[in-house]
Amino acid sequence: MSDIEIVIADEVFHARFEVKDAPRTVTRFRELLPFSDRIIHVRWSGEACWIPMGERDLSLGFENATSHPAPGQVIVYPGGMPTSVSETEILVAYGPCCFASKAGQLAGNHFLSILDGGERLAKLGRAVLWEGAKSITFRLKV
């Protein structure tokens, strides 16, 4: 069962919050909804796209953190900590991925899983790579 819709360009994906494994991250992200931005292709991580959020402090630590999100997993690097080595960001994996920045390998909180459209997600990820940024919106399912 899906909790949320993710709209990238004209494609709609249904996703589930990982409440059991990342309760603080899910709660904080729900406070941001609906959330709209632009998604761009990653620079160092492999087959993934990301939303740079700059110095935004989500007031989160790490929970359910991974450096290797599976296709369809959405992670957030919380940033805002004295030990942060990268900016706050959301990453959407569409293929093999090792989450990294110019400072090296990172870990992000896996808080959302896309439940459908893996093939469409991969096609869209490649389009972001070759065509550039796309709009993205996260909204609660109605």
Summed up, what is this model?
The chain is an alpha+beta fold.
Question: Which helices and strands, and how do they pair?
Answer:
Elements: E1 4-8, E2 11-17, H1 23-32, E3 35-41, E4 46-52, E5 65-66, E6 73-77, E7 89-97, E8 100-101, E9 104-105, E10 108-114, H2 118-131, E11 134-140
Antiparallel strand pairs: 1-2, 1-11, 2-10, 3-4, 3-11, 4-7, 5-10, 6-7, 6-10, 8-9
Describe the protein's architecture and organization:
- This protein is of the alpha+beta class and 142 residues long.
- The protein has one domain (4-140): Cyclophilin.
- Helices cover 17% and strands 42% of the residues.
- The strands form two sheets. It has an eight-stranded antiparallel barrel with strand order 1-2-10-6-7-4-3-11. Strands 8-9 form a two-stranded antiparallel sheet.
- The model has no long low-confidence stretch (mean pLDDT 94).
Shape: globular
From the helix content, strand content and strand pairing, which structural class follows?
alpha+beta
Count of structural domains:
1
Low-confidence sequence ranges:
none
Reading off the top of the CATH hierarchy, the class is best stated as: Mainly Beta
Over the alpha carbons, how many angstroms does the gyration radius reach?
14 Å
Task: Quote the distance from N terminus to C terminus.
Answer: 13 Å
Strand order of the largest sheet: 1-2-10-6-7-4-3-11
What fraction strand?
35-45%
Query: Strand count, sense and closure of the main sheet?
Result: 8 strands, antiparallel, barrel
Mean pLDDT: 94
Which architecture would the CATH scheme give at its second level? Beta Barrel
Q: Can you write the helix and strand succession as a string?
A: EEHEEEEEEEEHE
Number of strands: 11
User: Could you say what the CATH topology is called?
Assistant: Cyclophilin
User: Helix coverage percent of residues?
Assistant: 10-25%
Number of helices: 2
